[in-house]
Amino acid sequence: MEQSNFKDHFSQQSQDYALFRPHYPDKLGEILAKIAPDTQLALDVGCGTGQLSEVLAKYFDQVIAIDGSAEQIAQAKPHSKIQYRQAFAENIPLSAQSVDLIAVAQAAHWLDLEKFYVEVQRIAKPHAILALITYGVFSVDEEHLNHYCQHFYEVTIAPYWPPERQHVDEGYQNLAFPFEEFSIQPPALQVEWNFYQLIGYMSTWSAVKAASKALGHNPLNILADALLPEWEDPELPRVISWPLSVRVGKVNPA
């Protein structure tokens, strides 16, 4: 299955993506289930390896999870309530007025939103909810460690991010959103990771991959060499936090 405008930045790192990307808080699934008109069916668009899908499965009877990358789907953990399918957001293989919640986590900036929104209106039940979810750059709870990571993001690899990354940094606030929007208070996205888990996560960034190709070496190795002595014990977990943004709206309000 191919789509000429599908921007695939992650298939080559699918296994690392499954291992190191943070999972969304259960509270987010609970909030989305409460504002949806029903909890029969949720759709996770651009599901990757299932970080959000698994959370939605705790609150919805069934979850359909789609991604354009077969490699990403292959790394998703099987779940009795989740059906993983390779499919594109602009051509969703679901019937009209069948979905209670349509969620897109950390993927809306890659989509052809005009075509995707046509599909959203087609498959959504009356009063169904669309949620665009994204998280920006992380922070470490220890400032002397955070300084290294922020400099790496803001200076070292800044030139290598795809232009769509700007939408993530803006919390999706400048994406078109032609729906009846309302506000929710997103829960905290926070984990406790050791040194190796944090470096593993950063290795999944598309900009690290692009920088490595352009420079002929992986700049993350230089960061790791500088950061490791500052971490003290590499097995010691630190609190890692991301700013979580969620735009929600009603689709096809009666």
Structural notes for this entry:
The chain is of the alpha/beta class. Helices cover 34% and strands 23% of the residues. It has ten helices and ten strands. It has helices at residues 14-20, 26-35, 53-56, 70-74, 113-123, 143-156, 165-169, 195-202, 206-215, 219-231; strands at residues 41-45, 62-67, 82-86, 99-105, 124-135, 139-140, 180-182, 189-193, 238-242, 244-251. The chain has a seven-stranded mixed β-sheet, with helices on both faces. Strands 6-9-8 form a three-stranded antiparallel β-sheet. Strand 4 (99-105), helix 5 (113-123) and strand 5 form a beta-alpha-beta unit. Helix 1 (14-20) crosses helix 8 (195-202). It is elongated, with a radius of gyration of 18 Å. Mean pLDDT is 91; it is low at 1-14.
Biggest β-sheet: count, sense, barrel?
A: 7 strands, mixed
The mean pLDDT is 91
Contiguous low-pLDDT stretches (5 residues minimum) are 1-14
Class from secondary-structure proportions: alpha/beta
Distance between the termini: 36 Å
Shape: elongated
* Neighbour order of strands in the largest sheet: 3-2-1-4-5-10-7
Tell me the total number of β-strands: 10
Instruction: Report the portion of residues in β strands.
Output: 15-25%
The SSE string, one letter per element, is HHEHEHEEHEEHHEEHHHEE
Please count the helical segments.
Answer: 10
Gyration radius (Cα, Å) is 18 Å
Helix fraction? 25-40%
